[in-house]
Amino acid sequence: MEFKLEAHRIVSISLGKIYNSRVQRGGIKLHKNLLVSLVLRSARQVYLSDPCPGLYLAGPAGSPAMPPPPPQQQQPGEPAAGPPAGWGEPPPPPPPARAAWPEPEPQPERPAAPVTGAGDAPRGGEVEAAEAAWRRVEGAREAAEGGAAGPAGGSDGFPEGPRGTRRQCGCPPGAEDRPGAPGACPRLACCCAPRPAEDEPPAPPAVGPRKRGAAGVGGGPAGGPASGSSPLKKPRRNSEEQPGGAAAAAAEEEMETGNVANLISIFGSSFSGLLRKSPGGGREEAEGEESGAEAAEPGQICCDKPVLRDMNPWSTAIVAF
Amino acid sequence: MAGEGPARGGAGRGSRAGAARGPDAPGVSAGAGGGGCPAGGNDLQWCFSQVKGAIDEDVAEADIISTVEFNYSGDLLATGDKGGRVVIFQREQENKGRPHSRGEYNVYSTFQSHEPEFDYLKSLEIEEKINKIRWLPQQNAAHFLLSTNDKTIKLWKISERDKRAEGYNLKDEDGRLRDPFRITALRVPILKPMDLMVEASPRRIFANAHTYHINSISVNSDHETYLSADDLRINLWHLEITDRSFNIVDIKPVNMEELTEVITAAEFHPHQCNVFVYSSSKGTIRLCDMRSSALCDRHAKFFEEPEDPSSRSFFSEIISSISDVKFSHSGRYMMTRDYLSVKVWDLNMESRPVETHQVHEYLRSKLCSLYENDCIFDKFECCWSGSDSAIMTGSYNNFFRMFDRNTRRDVTLEASRENSKPRASLKPRKVCTGGKRKKDEISVDSLDFNKKILHTAWHPAENIIAVAATNNLYIFQDKLN
Fold first, then answer.
1. Where is this region: Disordered (chain B) (predicted)?
2. How far apart are CA B327 and CA A159, in angstroms?
3. How far is residue B186 from each of residues A316, B170, B473, measured CA to CA in Å?
4. Positive or negative CA dihedral for B149, B152, B153, B156?
5. Residues with Cβ < 8 Å from B360, sequence gap 6 or more?
6. Could you tell me which chain B residue has the CA closest to the CA of A156?
7. Nearest CB to A102 within list B264, B321, B365
8. A residues 223-252 near B, CB within 8 Å?
């Protein structure tokens, strides 16, 4: 369990670094971002492989957002049942891995209590809070792209990061890791249970101003939970209009600036893309693609491609660095 | 090496050209002061010689030293900083009154090598930070060096002017033109001595050849070509030609999403002008031979040590990324630096290094914090002693480490203002890794991770080292008997 906490923390830190790299002087450093993405991938692997299913099984699919994703997640999961080599390695067996990993360090901003033994009732709210949190992540990212946000403190700025990644990463490998238990349980496991309660307090103040600054985006979803998919779509699309155009004009051999957006948008797109199969993350990914002209409708292709091609958009996104 | 005893200089050079082990020991001691000193770098007693730079606690970012390099003779020491400036120190001639004291390094020339630029097409700022300086072998009275930032390499000529012409016909002493009709007699201008002036002028600018950030440059042993390496490509240049370069390595995948490793450092072999190596972020080194094909994407040798699965962690990939690769002077070995260790490789054995030295293994349990504060991305450099018998690299808390390859001993020293009395010996430092902290030891948690020594250089023939600690340059020498 500790390792899930550790992994979660590392994921959030990594996302913060990727985010900050966009505003660093001298442009994005390819090497550093590659390393960060590798750490992100390792942490994600651990996060998914740490076998504590018992913690997450309790609790129904409380919110309206819950039911749609799992069946859709299954679809991309199954066709790509034979994953490409890069993602195929089994997670390290817990006992020796635990010995090697650093001790989890105290995380002052996160009370650990809610993780264990949360009851059924909070689950539904947690899911929605998680979704709201994810929207905040997106909004924050748009802020960076639009240049409206100042450099965000890494850990400060992204307490929500892991929530977002958690939900998206939960779904496809949920099908992969627990083939015998499709449906709500892995979905719950990956996306809702551990964090939302504890993340609620720190998140709104940290993110709110930045999100508003960005593009006037999503003042709505910032505060309150809303039913799953539709609010998720809107803020991202709105804010994409602004930076997307400018960014898409970037030269072909850009320093992979777009891949940052690519990476982060893939977190969301593979989730939201599954919900609605429309170019939610499209504009951002278009700028990130080396061969931007490859798709007549870049958004659509980019949404489907990472999801369908690799089964694990994470791997695609991460090695995109 | 003005003023040094010929025996010492000769022995130093001779041993450098020879084998790297064993027989070098006498070479080292010869360099150390004419015999009497036992073999091995660690029997040397290092002492403080000089420190350059401001004492202010508030360090301006532009003053942070980003590269240090001795020239081929060791008489000149160049530093580059984050503000794009190059400062060259020259070793003074030995004082005849004190024949045993070594010459001091004093400022010889300072110039602004690179300025910040802006790439309008990509809306990116190009930092003026000097990433690397490499000297060219001296061929005439002037000195030449290459300095590079992220995108552009420049060849600088540093020349001395100590005479000026006087007595021109067409202009008078103020420089004003004289009316030709007023001239009634002609004279020949004569050269008069003047105060020494050192001028630096850019002779070549090699630009627009790199899409990614340049991390290395290396002058070839043919003294006509050099390579420059960025994250994904290595280009070969001719020193005289600035509008063309040959791409000799390209590891950019067709689909950037498949990128898994980048080039982190590259260097030409010191004697074989067709051989170079480059290291990767995955901890591997590839040796390439330019005779085999124009594009050296296929390596001739591949050096990789299998990973120890028991030490796997989230950060295994980061700490295995190689930050520096340096050939030994002999050309038989190369040294690589990753985050926690330095490894010496025999070019004839690709399967594993012949030596592995732990620099700061006590940091292994702190990797998560180091990841958070970005220290895990620090790129430490390493260097060989002139005789290849010792290697040196930096660490945190202004510590630097030296490993003697013959005696297998290592020592940790500190570059600090407290130890900066002239000729004060440096006391070995020790980091306490757990349990009871002994007196004089420092615990891991007390280390100052903002004080990092990333750049060090060793004089090519003598035991003089230059250590860059943030904005200060320390020069240490071994104690003469």
1. 1-34
2. 45
3. 79, 10, 53
4. negative
5. B340, B395, B396, B399, B401, B431
6. B372
7. B365
8. 250-251
CB spacing of B125 vs A26 below 8 angstroms: yes
Give residue-wise pLDDT tens across range A75-121: 443 443 333 444 434 444 444 434 344 444 444 444 444 434 434 44
B317 contact residues in A (CB cutoff 8 A): 35, 38-39, 42
Q: Would the CB atoms of A27 and B125 count as touching at under 8 Å?
A: yes
| ipTM of the shown complex | 0.84
Given a contact cutoff of 8 angstroms between Cβ atoms, the answer to whether B48 and B418 are in contact is no
Q: Which of B256, B310, B339, B375 has the most A C-beta neighbours within 10 Å, making it the best mutation to test the interface with A? A: B256
Spatial separation of the C-alpha atoms in residues A102 and A89, rounded to whole Å: 22
Residue of A nearest to B377 (CA): A32
Q: Which residues contact A64 (CB under 8 A, 6 or more apart)?
A: A227, A228
Cβ of residue A85 closer than 8 Å to a chain B Cβ: no
3-state helix, strand, coil in chain A (%, to 5): 65, 0, 35
Measuring CA to CA, how many Å separate B90 from each of B71, B77, B108? 10, 6, 5
> Rounded distance, CA B3 to CA B104, Å?
12
Q: Per-residue pLDDT for chain B (481 aa), expressed as one digit of tens each?
A: 333 333 333 333 333 333 333 333 333 333 333 333 333 445 678 999 999 998 888 889 999 999 999 999 999 999 999 999 999 999 998 766 655 556 899 999 999 999 999 989 888 899 999 999 999 999 999 999 999 999 999 999 999 999 998 888 888 878 788 888 888 889 999 999 999 999 999 999 999 999 999 999 999 999 999 999 999 999 999 999 999 999 999 999 999 989 999 999 999 999 999 999 999 999 999 999 999 988 988 899 999 999 888 888 889 999 999 999 999 999 999 999 999 999 999 999 999 999 999 999 999 999 999 999 999 999 999 999 999 999 999 999 999 999 999 999 999 999 998 878 888 899 999 998 877 778 888 999 999 999 999 999 999 999 999 999 999 999 999 886 3
> Residue B388 is which amino acid?
D
d(CA B126, CA A26): 5
Name the phi and psi angles at B395, rounded to 5: -150, -160
Q: Determine which helix (DSSP H) or strand (DSSP E) holds A100, and give its type and residue range.
A: helix A94-100
Which residue is it, tokens 């996160």?
A110
A276 at the B interface (CB within 8 A)? no
Chain A, residues 288-307, CB within 8 A of chain B, namely 290
> Looking at this protein, which amino acid is placed at residue B329?
H
**Cβ <8 Å between B213 and A30:** yes
Q: Are A299 and A281 in contact (CB under 8 A)?
A: yes
Residue B378 three-state SS: coil
Quick check: helix, strand or coil at residue B64?
A: coil
